[in-house]
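Input (structure):
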């Protein structure tokens, strides 16, 4: 695929001698819900800021909605909604009045439709009933929903959301997941930067994984997962013995549980694991081969947990 809602080529950002983003070739297909993942410090937010024209790249190019940035930013940005580290709201104004203020600052919108658009955005994030409450009385979750509403004050072809479920309770998180799904069904492309892997797993059709400023994997969720070996689990009352057999067969990263042993299959046929256990007298109660979780994939690609990046 040679085109997309977002395309970057060799996108690089240096701060002095430090390279925050290194030769990034990002491709977000039209209509995708793209999960942009990476540990803290991996370059995700810097990338997003370059996409939106908030930070000038050191080198490389950005194309959004078929137009090059920065040259086409005046045409493109009104078609893009963004939530990056949250907008600044006035604490003494109501939720609705804060959106009125933001909408009035946008010279590309029609003031005659402002009320309907603002109420529509509040309704979509579940804040219409609290529209007249002052922002300082909002919970953290309500503040995050208002920030999302600010990105929906007009129809958007592309939404860029940095940690959209931050601070939300489980119900609020489900609502945002449903909202993202409905926007995608309407044809909006959504890029989501998040550290909540379980949410990304449920929401996203495509994934990109950053590590120390580089894109280490990209593609559909299935394509990214395909690069990680499946896990084989032997359920037995002799897990230590089963684990030893699995290691002898060549399975890697074998873990012993209370009633099971699990390891990465690699190129080993699953039936060999069962046959070897039975041959050596290990009672096999159950056997399964499963796809790794997104967390397993992430750790396999970056070699570390989600919280830090060198």
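Output (sequence):
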């Amino acid at each position: 695929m040679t085109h997309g809602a977002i395309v970057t080529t060799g996108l690089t950002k240096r701060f002095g001698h430090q390279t925050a983003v290194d030769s990034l070739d990002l491709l977000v297909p039209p209509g995708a819900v793209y999960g942009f993942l990476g540990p803290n410090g991996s370059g995700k937010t810097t990338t997003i800021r370059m996409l939106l024209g908030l930070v000038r790249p050191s080198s490389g190019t950005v194309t959004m909605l078929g137009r090059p940035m920065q040259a086409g930013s005046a045409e493109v940005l009104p078609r893009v909604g963004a939530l990056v580290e949250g907008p600044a709201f006035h604490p003494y104004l109501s939720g609705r009045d804060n959106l009125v203020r933001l909408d009035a600052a946008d010279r590309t919108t029609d003031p005659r439709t402002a009320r309907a658009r603002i109420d529509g955005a509040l309704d979509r994030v579940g804040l219409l009933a609290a529209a007249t409450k002052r922002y300082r009385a909002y919970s953290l979750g309500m503040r995050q929903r208002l920030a999302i509403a600010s990105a929906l004050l007009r129809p958007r072809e592309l939404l860029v959301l940095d940690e959209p479920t931050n601070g939300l309770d489980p119900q609020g998180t489900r609502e945002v997941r449903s909202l993202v799904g409905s926007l995608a069904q309407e044809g909006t492309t959504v890029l989501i930067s998040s550290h909540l892997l379980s949410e990304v797993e449920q929401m996203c059709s495509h994934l990109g994984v950053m590590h120390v400023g580089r894109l280490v994997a990209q593609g559909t969720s299935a394509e990214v997962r395909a690069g990680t070996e499946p896990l084989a689990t032997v359920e037995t009352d002799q897990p230590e013995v089963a684990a030893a057999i699995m290691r002898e067969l060549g399975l890697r990263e074998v873990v012993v549980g209370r009633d099971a042993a699990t390891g990465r299959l690699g190129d080993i046929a699953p039936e060999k694991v069962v046959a070897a256990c039975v041959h050596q007298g290990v009672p096999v109660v159950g056997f399964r081969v499963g796809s790794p979780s997104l967390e397993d994939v992430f750790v396999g690609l970056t070699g570390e947990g989600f919280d830090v990046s060198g």
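Notes: The mean pLDDT is 88. The first helix runs from residue 44 to 51.
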